[in-house]
Amino acid sequence: MAVDALGRQGGDKVSLWRDPKARAVFFQILVITLFLAFVFYVGNNTVENLEKRGIASGFGFLSEPAGFGIGIVLLLDYNAQTSTHGDVLLIGIINTVVVSLSGIVLATIFGFVFGVLRLSKNWIVNKIAAVYIEVMRNIPLLVQLLFWYFAVLSVLPTVRDSIKIGENVAINNRGIYFPSVIPEAGFMVIVVALVVAIAGAVFLTRWAHKRQDKTGQAFPVFWSCVGLIIGLPVLAALVTGMPFSFETPNLGRFNISGGWVLEPEFLALWLGLSIYTGAFIAEIVRGGINSVSHGQTEAAHSLGIRPGLTMRLVILPQALRVIVPPLTSQYLNLTKNSSLATAIGYADLTAIFAGTTLNQTGQAIEVIAITMAFYLGISLLISMFMNWYNRRIALVER
Amino acid sequence: MAIVKTERHPELPPPVSQTGVIGWLRQNLFSNWWNTILTLVSLYVVWEAMSALIGYTIINANFAGTTREDCTGTGACWVFIKARFGQNMYGFYPEAERWRINVGYVLGAVGLFLVLSDVIKDKKWPAVFLFVVYPILCYFLFYGGFGLPKVETSEWGGLFLTLVLASVSIFVALPLGIVLALGRRSDMPVVRMVCVGFIELIRGVPLITVLFMASVMLPLFLPEGMNFDKLIRALVGMSLFSAAYMAEVIRGGLQAIPKGQMEAAKSLGLGYWQAMGLIILPQALKISIPAIVNTFIGLFKDTTLVIIIGLLDLLSVIKSGTTDKNWLGLATEGYVFVAAVFWVFCFGMSRYSIWLENKLHTGHKR
């Protein structure tokens, strides 16, 4: 008979119920069975209910005409009679992405500005930042959105008495109107010049970094990049003889035609999301900068590095390691919160697809599944990108 | 003649410009020219903002009266809030029965105070009251039974509904979150997969879609005839949603407990549940309390989203008030009021969380 290390005899086995491995197997089989039973039960009920209510299933509705108007349409052409629910889905996705990206940019600016101000040695500036953070963090986003939309942007003057900034910018309760740029033949040259300039700036930055690593000579990267990105398109425009014209918004009695417009729905959502998320980001930035030990600043100063450069070259790179992971989840929150658009009528995915399309077709399961899949996908994308960025700036250890 | 001082020269006080009010001002507000400009600009901004705010909300505001016509000043029209105060607080709950809600508030406040503050050291009985007796009591008190007339949930509303939504969701989400967190750290791959799948699915989508799902799809999932009312559906959605977030918070707490604790517990002969219940969870929950409170603040703010599926919470009642034809044009007052109410609750909770964090940190904080 086998004898184990403790001198016990192996013959009398523990009962199966007392064996952790057997118990784990049993428990997992139980979980799987319960899960499958649940899925089967729900699936069965759903099929039955759908049949009884006469709701079609499948994704055929995506190619059926939608038949309702959409407030804000970007990039695509949309026609209430001929466009399909598939087009509605696409427009919703574009609108969600547009408002999320612009929100992320503005919220990051707010967050970094107020996060740094919160650390200011100037008592009053410090307190102003604190008030912004504490007020905005503790008021529900939806209340803020409704406030911006119904209490601020809706009470702006009507088209007739628009507030005018200069000759061409008008602010009224229909939005903010700008002159638009109408491209003419040869406009592509300018676009190409811009792309070339950006690519050139990226290469220049890399080259300057390499040269500095090798020889220690610095290169004025920032200003030369700015010059490149602004200068090259301007040069192209001058050479091709200005192949574009401006169309100024034309104020009618009740309506406005021409020009570009930022609709109040978009503005409310954009501002609301940015101000709300900015408050959270400010706290993250403050925490990150605080987490860098003060000795780093002192060491940098004793090496003769100026305060501005200390912040940029010594403190921020270390703070970013602490800042980036929670920043990622704030970006994700902002993207998910953009679905509150439905409360103020901005035509995002949730409002027009999970709202109007769902009501018209009644195909709740497909619509909700597509919507959820989109948000899940975009969450994964953002976290993948930020993980990549995080790896790039992470501390390189042994 | 040599001059040798034998006694010590008396210590001079520090220069006036470095102590007291003047020193503080110099150091914090006027240390150099740039700081001085910053201070002056900020003071101007604060002055403008405060005078506008106080002028609007207090000095020029209207408090007395009962109708829109009583609002003659240029500031806020608080008459709007006052005239509809009952509705803002209780929704359409019958006026004769509103004392029941107030009794519930008082009992809840007493229970919360006993559990959260330091007045009573032994928290066992207050906890039993708050987490077992109180919910049952509230069900009968608010919904009806034992001789109290029934009040349908469709009549619930206002701040009362907001509080019900928040407290029931947290009450369900906390235990569910603990189970999910334990499942996610389990050694059994199937259990882990189910938990990870649920948590990541919920955390990856907005609350609105979960609420849509609860309100539109839950009736499809259940057999014919079995139908919950709207409030229960919203509660299911909110509880599941916050359970996923709670699970991640508690997982953080669990991860902070060194492995040796579990090994020590096992070597003493404790089983999994004994070790978890007696050794690991008390420590893990204790360190995650501040984060749990933060999650609860988020949940509390998120209750406003039920407006989208048509429940009459505080925001919803106010919003419908602003479209009342007798009270048109008072959106600012309404939303400022809602914002103030939520701010007081959330700010209070965040201060409590900070206080708790400091209290729990004693001993191992440098």
TrEMBL record, chain A:
Keyword terms of this UniProt record: Amino-acid transport, Cell membrane, Membrane, Transmembrane, Transmembrane helix, Transport
Signal peptide: none
Transmembrane segments: 25-43, 55-76, 88-117, 129-151, 187-209, 221-246, 266-285, 340-358, 364-389
Stretches assigned to the ABC transmembrane type-1 domain: 93-386
Pfam families: BPD_transp_1
Gene3D superfamilies reported for this sequence: MetI-like
Family under the similarity heading: Belongs to the binding-protein-dependent transport system permease family. HisMQ subfamily.
Name of this protein: Amino acid ABC transporter permease
Organism: Sneathiella chinensis
Automatic annotation (TrEMBL), chain B:
Pfam families linked: BPD_transp_1
UniProt source species: Sneathiella chinensis
PROSITE patterns to which the protein is assigned, alphabetical: ABC_TM1 (PS50928)
Transmembrane segments: 33-59, 99-120, 127-146, 158-182, 194-218, 230-247, 291-315, 327-350
Annotated family: Belongs to the binding-protein-dependent transport system permease family. HisMQ subfamily.
Keyword annotations: Cell membrane, Membrane, Transmembrane, Transmembrane helix, Transport
Family annotation (InterPro entries): AA_ABC_transptr_permease_3TM, ArtM/GltK/GlnP/TcyL/YhdX-like, MetI-like, MetI-like_sf
Coiled-coil segments on the chain, per record: none
Topology in the lipid bilayer: Multi-pass membrane protein
Domain ABC transmembrane type-1: 159-348
Name recorded for this polypeptide: Amino acid ABC transporter permease
Keyword Cell membrane included in the entry's annotation: yes
Gene3D superfamilies with a match to the protein in the record: MetI-like
Source domain of life: Bacteria
Claim: Membrane is one of the keywords in the record: yes
Primary subcellular site in the record, as a coarse category: membrane
Cell location: Cell inner membrane; Cell membrane
